[in-house]
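Order emerges. As here.
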Amino acid sequence: MTTVTSSEATSSGASLVIRRLCKSYVLDKPILRDIDLVFGERGITAVIGPSGAGKSTLIRCVNGLVSATSGEILFHGEDMTRLSGKRLREMRRRIGMVHQEYSLVERLSVMENLLTGRLGYVPAWRAWLRRFPPADIAQAYELLDAIGLGDFANRRADQLSGGQRQRVGIARALMQQPDLLLADEPTSSLDPKTSVEIVELMSNLASARGIPVIINIHNVDLAKRFASRIVGMSQGAIVFDGPPAALTEKHLADIYGGQSWI
């Protein structure tokens, strides 16, 4: 298990440092318990654990959707837990998010959904009139080709399959040109074959752009296949942190509670 030291927290190779992070929705019932983690500037980290372990809360604390009870979240040296207003919005647009249920605007086209990833960078009047800069539109077309949906620019989002929607969700997150990509159970609604395709796509696109990825995922086999690092959580605490090859059945029993499911 990783313990964050002062030297690690200030090292140039760390894009995200989490120190003593705690979160409670109800007094004396912590969801996160003193989380210490350091994330580098590249690679995929898979966070595994049973439902209720705190995986989604951890992700949401990082991008500011949930406020931490205590602790620090240092993103490029700035403590996200202390930011507000304009500066918080500026930092959050540097963190891309791929959601479990896609979170697309159903009535909009695929292209329009992608361009919402640029809302933090263009004036409100441009967004309202849908007059995005040519460079943004060109980037959107490039990403559509990269995700295999080059012919779907004008298709409404509600006409897509689940796998296609998640591809659009990944492309929309990358439209932000983020420094960090978060994914919260991106394959939970997908069949096994499509799940592999989605994680592989996310891995390839992020790797090509040099973007570190933190992904919450229930599928241990997928985590071991694509992640360079696995973090195992149980009851709000980290009980494993290491490479996939080091993850044993004993570790899985510690993470998920018991041997019977293995």
In short: Confidence is low (pLDDT under 50) at residues 1-12. Residues 8-256 form a domain with the Rossmann fold fold (CATH 3.40.50.300). The two ends are 22 Å apart (CA to CA). The first strand starts at residue 14 and ends at 26.
